[in-house]
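Protocol step 4 of 5: obtain the predicted structure for the target chain.
Materials: sequence only (see below). No template structures provided, no constraints applied. The aim of this step is simply to have a reference model before the mutagenesis design in step 5. Sequence pasted as it appears in the construct record:
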Amino acid sequence: MPTPEGHVSIVGGGITGLATAWYLRQYAPGLAVTVWDASDRLGGKLRTGSLDGVAVEAGPDTFLARVPWAVELCRALGLEDELVAPATGRAYIWTRGRLRPIPEGTVLGVPARLDPLARSGIVSPAGLARAALDLVLPTSGPAAGGVAGADRSVADVVGGRLGREVVDRLVDPLIGGIHAGRADRLSLAAVAPQVAGPAAHGGSLMRALRGSLPPPTPTPAARAGPEGYGTPGGPLFLGLRGGIERLVERLVERLGGPELRLGAPVRSLDDLGRGPVVLTVPAFAAAPLIEPRSADAAGELAAITYASVVTVTLAYGEDALASGPLDGSGFLVPRVDGRLITACTWLTSKWPHLAEGRPGLVLLRASAGRAGDDRAMELDDAELVDRVHAELVEAMGLRSAPRSHFLTRWPRAFPQYDVGHQARVARIESALAADAPGVTVAGAAYRGVGIAACIQQARQAALSLAGG
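Step 4 output (structure tokens):
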């Protein structure tokens, strides 16, 4: 199992590990690289399955396109022509008895204006009146009354200005949904820096956010070609025809040089020789590997908690839709409403190419499970499909049962960026530098959970190892 001294060992064959190997090939082509993974497949949470002959995602189906890292990697791998933007950016919140459109002019669900919020009906008249107080409440110190430099939760900061109902019914489904977390625990600075910056002055949050609103998403006709992908005016998200796992396949195909070892769990860093090591496994898996060299770093890694999620993709005929074709990409579900599902993506509306050559096919993908709610993990597959379908009937008025399904469980898959997360990551990195030089951690547990953020971390790790 040992690798020769001077080799770089990458532990974990998910997108972060594979991208790290790719960038090392670019920046230090003479360096030998070995990627170790305990499972029998590469790609981690990037997994594409099949339902009714259609490629469907078991994990994420998009990556951020208005930052460069994932788009640039796809281009470097020759995948540019396979990039595809969602056909619609319209989405809903299932709350207060029905599906309600997410209001225009929000930043991660935090409204910049009252009128769109009022028209959406997402909050009650009392909740709207409380949100309006943001415009007249006095400035009360950094981050709406916090101590300068102190980290605070999403709910504490946003709720302090706009009220708890806006947090519970609009902000928590968006920010909390991305992380499968809780707005009252998630660090605003770590999960929503585009909100934390404007909030720091402590005055009206809505007014401060108006200068941070993202450019409007262009119509499908205006973004037909890939030339605008990755630019400020381009689509916010992108996927890949054939599935996100195409990125994994192409990385493996193009890497060639690095040795890829599957079904090979690493039980000790000593088994990897004396060369540099990049740990891209979850924090709870990295902790015992690091503990013999840095108890401080291991303790901080072990303190990062995780949430478990299940995705259930259901295939229906078009006769299941009570009101005709779906207008939007899907809906989110607030925690406060107590539902089992947390979100539903209308796949064949968001990605029309999935239904090409299959008239009448309707694919819906529901997610269930989040921090503090493991009900979905405790149900068997049949019970889970029945419960999910029943809630979709209630939300959407579906008129027939699904004809097939595709289900994937993701235990301990979403790291929680709770208050103090950025300081914890800094302590981990400081302890490793002092106690275990040559050992680096990267991946979803540290500086961003999305595909693009993981690719960025991979690039930074490779640059550091290559002396860049």
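Step 4 remarks: Confidence is low (pLDDT under 50) at residues 1-5, 142-146. DSSP finds 18 helices and 19 strands in the chain.
Proceed to step 5.
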